[in-house]
Amino acid sequence: MSGPAPLYLVQGNPMQTMALRLNPDHGPSDSIPHELQKYYSPDVWVARQRAVMTKGGRYLKPRFDIAFAVFMFIGALALPIAIYYVALHALPNKEKVFQEANGRVLVEDDRFWEARAISGASLIGFLLLGWGPFFFWKAQGKRQVNQMLQRFRAEDAAMAGPNATIPEWTMNMPSMGSKALHVMITYPRPPMMTAFQVGVQLPPYIVNQPVDPNGARYYQQYAPPAGAPPGRRTSTGSAGSIPLYGSHNEKIPDYSGPTSNAYMPRDEKDGFDDIRV
User: Fold this and answer.
1) pTM of the model as a whole
2) Contact 187/33 with Cβ under 8 angstroms?
3) Percent of the chain as helix, strand, coil, to the nearest 5
């Protein structure tokens, strides 16, 4: 006795994320992705993109970003060297002379180490004073845009209802030298269609009857006769109401073998007609 049929379940993340790239120079796109068409109308979709581009585009300065990066690179190389020599000449002379037992004289001067420490500290301070405000400016743009997107989400939740799940928009921090904003849209994953899941919602072309009224006659010729056990193969080549292929329906000609001249060498004059001269 065979056991019960196995149960196949499809499990996955209930939320799905879509990456949206918005370029303020090109303007908003009016084509809504298929997964988000039930949440937004074309006017709302364009208005959301335009709002993100208007507020987030203030923090996209690719030329300024490149010029600032070049300035910071040159400064990180030149400033520590200049500070080292300035500090080396500005520090007081602290030479200490030692004479060993064998008569060798050693001179110890701490100014070099102190100048190197000052040079390293100046490099760290230069990087913090330069890149700190720059990334704070970028993070400020991300925070302002995300606060605006949270207000949009609150409006969508108020219109959709208390228990409805709606997409959530979040913007990444504007990248250095980038010309576009990167927005992540997290929305509920649509139900996956699979024939192995019990109680799955089948596509409409399988559930509904044929649109053509004459289409039902095609399946009547494969219907089993009255009283036939279910699943038994009938003479029409079907099992139940599903048409199956039958080998007896195929017409295979008898094997006649090769012709008499199949293995003879071809005549070089073959294909030419004899003409009487």
Assistant:
1) 0.58
2) no
3) 40, 15, 45
